[in-house]
Amino acid sequence: MLLLMVSGYALAQSVTLRGAGSTFAAPIYTQWFAEYKKETGVSVDYQAVGSGAGINALKNRTVDFGATDAPLTDSDLKQMPFPVVQIPTLGGAVVMTYNLPGVGSGLRLTPEIIADIYMGKIKKWNDPRILAINFIKNLPDLPIHPVHRSDASGTTYIFTSFLTKAVPEWAKQIGSGKSVSWPVGIGGQGNPGVTANIMRTKGGFGYVELAYAIQNHLPLASVRNAAGNFVTPSVTTTNIAIGQYIGALKKDIRTPTVYAPGVNSYPICGLTYVLIYQHGGSNPGPVTKLFSWAMGEKAQEMGEKLYYAPLPPSLIKLNLAALKTVQGAQVAIGP
Length: 335
Fold this sequence. Notes:
Blueprint: H1 2-14, E1 16-21, H2 26-40, E2 43-47, H3 51-59, E3 65-68, H4 74-79, E4 84-98, E5 108-109, H5 111-118, H6 128-132, E6 145-149, H7 154-166, H8 168-173, E7 186-188, H9 190-200, E8 204-209, H10 210-215, E9 222-224, E10 230-231, H11 235-243, H12 246-251, E11 269-277, H13 284-293, H14 297-305, H15 313-323
Parallel strand pairs: 1-2, 1-3, 5-9, 6-7, 6-8
Antiparallel strand pairs: 3-11, 4-8, 4-11, 9-10
GO molecular function: phosphate ion binding
Protein name: Phosphate-binding protein
Domain PBP: 13-280
């Protein structure tokens, strides 16, 4: 019996799962996978290469799972070699941050101002439209240097989905997607690349996942939501926003959660997803066991400590049911 137990643990230690994709989710995935190895001996080699590259890696069958903040569309699904199960793992906020000496968090921005900065129409930090909605009146006479993603990005998908929903002119001229044709700006690879460009550029302005801004001591803008209130990004305001879409998410787990109704909803947020082949994929048992573990209370609390929004119980239940549809699934928790 002892020999069998030792052999079983050695087998678990020998498993290395491979994943690639989202930089948005990389901070929590790094912690999750380290903790999971401690508990089970299973290693996870996760490459934070961006959502687009993660989807391509799964399509090319070079990984056991992909990770994306832009769920696969019906058209995307048809291009995959096997049916794909996509489950959200957590929610998160995309924040507007900036490099303005002497200016901390709390700068107010509207969807229209953000759109016009990225369309090259607002070029200075002391533009009258910015000054008009802010209590901070000493904004510097500095050029705004907008920073965007240079790679196919789920963070860009969330950000441009927000602008598309909130600003008709943006919807007409630019639209939404993992990649768009940016009229102006500096490109950065991944959330780390955008963060680094903002930090090194006086007057820099861009969008990153909340944890990247907090960990790098960058200020956070308050963004006007659909109810007309200026809301600061946080776990609470992200949870409130996602909660507005629970009914729609039960019908289609891919439903965008941007520009949600509600007085306290933060308007630029979304879910981050993992993609697993329903059949035909590699290591389906260990992969489904890993992500059913991620649905547990401990893993979700770890996410909250890193400024991600834990999933509501109704979505966790849907996720566990979806994981069970994977051929060879090993679901670790739940009914």
